[in-house]
């Protein structure tokens, strides 16, 4: 599976971009999955539910399944945070996995950068950031700059860079 990242400082619009980028890529016939990295502790389970009680009892993994979806909850229980490559092995085979976050990993990325937010960009110090999507013109940029509203342009950049092709 090919992977491509969307990175940027908190609040820059990474998730909003992914919401419109996914359909822009899938309309070309590609299957897309996502991985979202978070620095916060999170729980998609609810206290009192059977699955929550099973995890609290010490289960390393609990799978929730219904006729609409399934989810595998995996407790690290002190293990190191897994690398992207390890996480992807648990996913179904698709054409493209878009990764939100994991900004310090060594995979190709586009940075979402909004100068009006007053935060320093990531791209000057990261050669894995191949392009920048911004809502303003940037000076002294040494890589492609794509208008943040040009969703087709961003999709085309990713598809072209990864040389994604539909199998006949």
List the helices and strands and how they pair.
Blueprint: E1 2-7, H1 14-26, E2 32-36, H2 50-56, E3 61-65, E4 70-74, H3 84-88, E5 96-100, E6 109-113, E7 129-134, E8 145-147, H4 151-162
Helix pairs in contact: 1-4
Structural notes for this entry:
- Residues 3-135 form the Molybdopterin-guanine dinucleotide biosynthesis protein B (MobB) domain.
- This is Molybdopterin-guanine dinucleotide biosynthesis protein MobB.
- This protein has 168 residues and is an alpha/beta fold.
- It has a single domain (2-40, 81-162), classed as Rossmann fold.
- It contains four helices and eight strands.
- The chain has helices at residues 14-26, 50-56, 84-88, 151-162; strands spanning 2-7, 32-36, 61-65, 70-74, 96-100, 109-113, 129-134, 145-147.
- A six-stranded parallel beta sheet has the order 2-5-1-6-7-8, with helices on one face. The chain has a two-stranded antiparallel ribbon with strand order 3-4.
- Helix 1 (14-26) packs across helix 4.
- The chain is globular.
- The mean pLDDT is 91.
Task: Give me the Rg, rounded.
Answer: 18 Å
C-alpha geometry: globular
CATH topology: Rossmann fold
Q: Assign the structural class, choosing from mainly alpha, mainly beta, alpha/beta, alpha+beta, or little secondary structure.
A: alpha/beta
| Average residue pLDDT | 91
In short:
The protein has 168 residues and is of the alpha/beta class. It contains 4 helices and 8 strands; from the N terminus they run βαβαββαββββα.
